[in-house]
Write a sequence for this structure.
């Protein structure tokens, strides 16, 4: 997989997020013989979204497990395997289908360590696409960030770019806790320049630490996953109007890095949260509450503005779908609102 | 007195597991393989003469529809490649199962589809235009532009809307079938699913419930040999899916799914038995998916063209029915006439695509309706916000393309 990374100049390479995830999995499967990938179409079909391309040919069917169609079946099986010392990477074709297996993720993987007083461990990574893609309507477009990040016992990660994808996935595999890893189908094709150190087989990103993508002084934008892209575009547009935005890429949703958010607020005094998912009980709602509970509240010059998806099952028709999710101009509008 | 009566009620419900014994260890793995019911052979010759009982008119209508669906699927598959629709699923090679089954059911029977049953929809009257408008997602779509292509439904035609997560429709059919029995209705719930979908946990619960609670449900499995790229040998072991049904206590038929007469007769028999006995019935159709899983698939990556061609020419439902009709003198075949049928369908689909693409998109008001039975206040607020936003930025949006504008 590293062969197809394009060398741009000394110290950098260009790769897509898909390649980043693929290379991270390949390195971890190579490194630890207990690690395996399991899911529908992950092996000989090279992955429903080609994320596991080449892995079956390289590692064979003992490390890349194709399964019959049953999320409940292969998730339950993987949780059991994890309890007895293997390290599964469970791929859901989409987290929308993971609902058929959610009991295994929550009632088993997440809670067993606590319930067994530390006796049962489930070192397991659940990964797959999350949130909206394009023209796939209600049952393929839900964002599960809020649902999973509420559950004690789970670590919830959501990468944006190649750096995030590689560092967070490798950290997730090596972490002894169950991890929910929320990817994004649209981001799979996005290419980024990647410094050599990110390609290192031991490149890890700390879990529980957000990243400041862009420093600013007028407004803090808190976001994650694909919305980081639109937030950065909004920040660039606002810069031209003399407004300086600080963009925070959360990276980890649970445990959420409240300190980075608080420190930023002390500087900017205004906050906009951006998420694709529904507003009620969402990540933005959690950020608002965190601010409210800490001394960050007293640094605010205006109430927090949340930008979220519309409170509806996602429609299919192009015009309706476009209006259901935040875009760059919605974020620009929100920043201007919080500054008024 | 009360305590005594309560105790005897409990005893009645208890039924001891039947006790018979053997005195040697002899595990069982396979029961005798269930054979496929067939009426005509691969060349359309009539073998099981007593099942040659379908009215000539019905047979011709079925044949016409199978040709129509083949042409329509061809055009719509290509139209996805041309960017006119975003997604499509063809049913090449499987229309004897869907059209034959639906012709043998009654109009009041509920159908719970999977996603490859355009045959069921169209037999009951769903039109080419309705299909095309749904795939495009314009304002004429009966589904208000809410669903991905091929996810249609019709309350009028008693066909439940297609839903993406696999197999969820199957326990739903058990539930509906239960309701029909309890209310004494002359109705069954017929549910479709592929052999891959039968791996899901929902299938097993649905089967167990249907037989144990006695539901008027007909289980219809399209075993087309592939679930995306997964061949049947990697999906399950045992005597295909039909082999599992008797274990639930259910009456079972395995039918040659490319034999229209076998399909029709088998389903007609099953329906009568369900209504008579008030118990479910299971049918597995053995067929073959000649086309790709969907427009997102390229099946020659995992199977050979020779394999596909051997079914396409050697065991093709349209060819077999056509040869039967010809040999029995039930249809006049002439090249010019048949080509005209195909040409007419092709033109109709193309016209529907053109007309459909010129239509406006669904109304923005329908963004917020049907979330609940009425538009709740928080949604009314969001609709107001949306209209304000669109008014303010009207030159950024193609509002003239939205039905009803702002």
């Amino acid at each position: 997989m590293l062969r197809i990374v394009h060398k741009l100049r000394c110290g950098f390479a260009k790769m897509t997020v898909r390649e980043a995830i693929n290379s991270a999995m390949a390195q971890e499967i190579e490194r630890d013989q207990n690690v395996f990938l399991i899911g529908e179409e992950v092996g000989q079909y090279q992955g429903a979204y080609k994320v596991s391309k080449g892995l079956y040919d390289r590692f064979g069917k003992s490390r890349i497990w194709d399964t019959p169609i049953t999320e409940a079946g292969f998730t339950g099986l993987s949780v059991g395997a994890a309890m007895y010392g293997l390290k599964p990477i469970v791929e859901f074709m989409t987290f929308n289908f993971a609902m058929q297996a959610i009991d295994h993720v929550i009632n088993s993987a997440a809670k067993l360590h606590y319930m067994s007083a530390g006796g049962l461990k489930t070192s397991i990574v659940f990964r797959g696409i999350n949130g909206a893609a394009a023209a796939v309507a209600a049952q393929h477009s839900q964002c599960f960030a809020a649902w999973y990040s509420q559950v004690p016992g789970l670590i919830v990660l959501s990468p944006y770019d190649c750096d995030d994808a590689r560092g967070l996935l490798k950290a997730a595999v090596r972490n002894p806790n169950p991890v929910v890893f929320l990817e994004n189908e649209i981001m799979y094709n996005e290419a980024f320049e990647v410094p050599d150190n990110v390609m290192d087989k031991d490149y890890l990103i700390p879990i529980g630490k957000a990243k400041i993508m862009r420093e600013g002084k007028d407004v803090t934008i808190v976001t994650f996953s694909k919305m980081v892209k639109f937030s950065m575009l909004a920040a660039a547009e606002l810069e031209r109007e003399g407004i300086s935005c600080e963009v925070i890429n959360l990276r980890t949703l649970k445990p959420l890095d409240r300190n980075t958010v608080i420190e930023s607020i002390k500087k900017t005094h205004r906050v906009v949260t951006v998420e694709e998912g529904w507003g009620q009980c969402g990540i933005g709602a959690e950020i608002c509450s965190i601010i409210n509970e800490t001394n960050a509240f007293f640094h605010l010059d205006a109430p927090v503005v949340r930008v979220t998806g519309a409170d509806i099952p996602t429609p299919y028709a192009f015009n309706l779908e476009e209006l259901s999710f935040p875009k760059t101009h919605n974020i620009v509008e929100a920043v201007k609102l919080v500054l008024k | 007195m009360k305590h005594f009566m309560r105790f005897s009620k409990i005893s009645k419900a208890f039924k001891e597991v039947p006790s018979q014994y053997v005195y040697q260890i002899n595990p069982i793995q396979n029961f005798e393989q269930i054979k496929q019911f067939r009426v005509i052979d691969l060349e359309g010759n009539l073998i099981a003469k007593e099942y040659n009982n379908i009215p000539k008119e019905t047979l011709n209508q079925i044949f016409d529809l199978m040709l129509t669906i083949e042409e329509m699927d061809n055009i719509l598959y290509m139209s996805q490649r041309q960017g006119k629709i975003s997604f499509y699923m063809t049913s090449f090679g499987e229309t004897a199962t869907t059209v034959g089954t639906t012709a043998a059911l009654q109009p009041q029977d509920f159908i719970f589809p999977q996603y490859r049953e355009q045959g069921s929809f169209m037999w009951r009257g769903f039109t080419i235009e309705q299909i095309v408008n749904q795939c495009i997602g314009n304002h004429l779509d009966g589904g208000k532009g809410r669903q991905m292509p091929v996810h249609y439904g019709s309350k009028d035609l008693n066909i439940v809307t297609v839903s993406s997560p696999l197999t969820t429709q199957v326990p739903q059919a058990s539930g509906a079938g239960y309701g029909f029995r309890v209310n004494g209705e002359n109705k069954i719930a017929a549910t479709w699913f592929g052999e891959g979908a039968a791996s899901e946990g929902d299938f097993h619960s649905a089967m167990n419930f249907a037989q144990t609670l006695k539901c008027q449900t007909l289980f219809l499995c399209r075993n087309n040999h592939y679930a995306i790229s997964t061949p049947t040998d990697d999906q399950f072991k045992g005597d295909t899916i039909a082999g599992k049904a008797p274990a639930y206590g259910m009456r079972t038929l395995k039918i040659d799914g490319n034999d229209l007469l076998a399909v029709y007769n088998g389903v007609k028999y099953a329906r009568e038995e369900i209504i008579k006995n008030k118990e479910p019935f299971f049918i597995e159709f053995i067929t073959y998916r000649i086309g790709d899983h969907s427009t997102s698939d390229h099946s020659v990556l995992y199977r050979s063209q020779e394999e596909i061609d051997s079914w396409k020419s050697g065991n093709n439902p349209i060819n077999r029915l056509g040869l039967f009709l010809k040999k029995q003198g039930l249809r006049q075949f002439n090249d010019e006439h048949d080509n005209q049928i195909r040409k007419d369908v092709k033109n109709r689909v193309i016209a529907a695509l053109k007309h459909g693409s010129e239509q406006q998109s669904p109304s923005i008001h329908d963004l917020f309706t049907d979330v609940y039975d009425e538009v709740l206040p928080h949604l009314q607020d969001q609709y107001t916000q949306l209209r304000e936003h669109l008014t303010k930025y009207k030159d950024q949006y193609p509002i003239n393309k939205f039905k009803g504008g702002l």
The two ends of chain A are 50 Å apart (CA to CA).
